[in-house]
Structures are given as structure tokens and as C-alpha cells.
Amino acid sequence: MMRSVQRILAVFESFTAERSSLTLQEIADRIELPKSTTFRIVQSLDQAGYLVRLEDQQYCLSFRFTRLAGLVKSTLGIREIARPILIELAEKTKETISLHTVSGQNRICIDAVSTDASPLRAVVQSGEQIPLLVGSGSKVLMAYMPKDEAAPFVTAVAKATKRTKADVLAEFEKVREQGYSVSHGERLLGISAISAPIKDVHEEVHYCLSLGAPTVRLQTREKELVKQVVNAAANISLQFGGRLE
């Protein structure tokens, strides 16, 4: 049953803004299934009214999706979507988990969850504002900014960290390539953080998910925690309208 659902979702996800209509073969190629199997799925979705077969034998999503989209709670925001995942990640890792966005020249925490599992932990409070210069969360948010918006921040970071703009841009490129950022003691001595981007329906990044922990504890689990943070951010992205990777 789950496999069938995954295949149906894969068909829906194969359509993009750039390719809003596809041939049967193109759909099969994108979901990596035989053409015969793909035909059976597509035919069922066509009959159910979720796909439309055009005159040129290509398929596109039907207006049923417009109706369903209108049923999405209009006030459902990133905090409401992310909150359960923040709580789950905090319980799983026993570390402090937070959600951030850009506010002017600062990075602002819009939600944070921590556990009492350890007396030694990173403390982040909702509403806390931090200059958008250092730290893994700041790097993620700046790395995904449009170039014109990022330009003044690149200059400020280069000046504050005594590096060239080229070095700062190279670091941002690395963040985008690997899909996360890690910092050790950049904002607070002895505190490390891992951050990953949250993408919306337009594949834009206006929020990031962060895990903060004492450096001595994070470094021994860094690889494992990076994977958990990236996966959690991807789950939020998916519910926020982002695409399946």
C-alpha cells in the first residue's frame, strides 16, 4: 500500500513549473519505473480526475489540485508546521532545536525547543535576535539569499571576520553544495551549531533549522547530528511546499 502511494506521489512530483505537461515516457523516466507500470498509474489518476490527457498525448495536473490547495488552512505558517518536528528532534537528540529567519540585519529565533536531559546545553529563546554575521544559522540564511540581497552581508561578514569577499562567497557556495552548515564557537565560545535550510514551494529559503549544543558533546556526534538536522529540515520543507529531493 505504502509503495503504491509513493508511486502516485512521485508522479505528481514529476511535474514542475518549467515542465507542467509531460509525455508518458517522460513521467516514466522521472519516477524511474517501466513505461507499462507508469501507464497503469497514470491511467488510474486520469480516470480519477487528478491528471488530464492533452491533445498532444501529454499529461498535466488537473484543476482538482487548485480546489485542494484552497482547503489548506490559510493561517498555517512555518511555526505551526515546524513545531512538531522541532519537538521530535529535540527529544531524539537531547539538544536544543530552533527555527530562524532574517529580520533586517539580524537573524531572529521564531521558535525553540530544548530538553532537560542535560544540565549543560545551548540556550536559545524565541524572539532572540542575533547579528547576521557568524554562526551556522546565519551562514545558511545568507548562502541562499539572492545575490543582490546578500551583497551587503557578504561585505559585512568579510570585514568582521577579516577575510576576502571571495572567501566568504566560497564558504556560502559550500553551504549550498552540502546542504547544511556547522559552526564551532563562532557566536559563543564552547557552543557549536548545525543548521540546514527550509525550502518553500518556490525553492526559496527564508528559514533554517538549527541544533545547538556544547562543542565537546556535538563534535563526538557531528556526523549523526548533521544527518538528523538535514532530514528534519527536509521534512519541514516538504510540508511547507518544497519538493521531494
TrEMBL record:
> Entry's InterPro entries?
GAF-like_dom_sf (IPR029016), HTH_MetabolicPath_Reg (IPR050707), Tscrpt_reg_IclR_C (IPR014757), Tscrpt_reg_IclR_N (IPR005471), WH-like_DNA-bd_sf (IPR036388), WH_DNA-bd_sf (IPR036390)
Highest taxon above the source species:
Bacteria
Q: Which UniProt keywords apply?
A: DNA-binding, Transcription, Transcription regulation
GO MF annotations for this entry? DNA binding; DNA-binding transcription factor activity
Ranges for domain IclR-ED come to 64-242
Location of the HTH iclR-type domain: 2-63
Name of the protein described by the UniProt record = HTH-type transcriptional regulator KipR
* Organism in which the protein naturally occurs: Cupriavidus yeoncheonensis
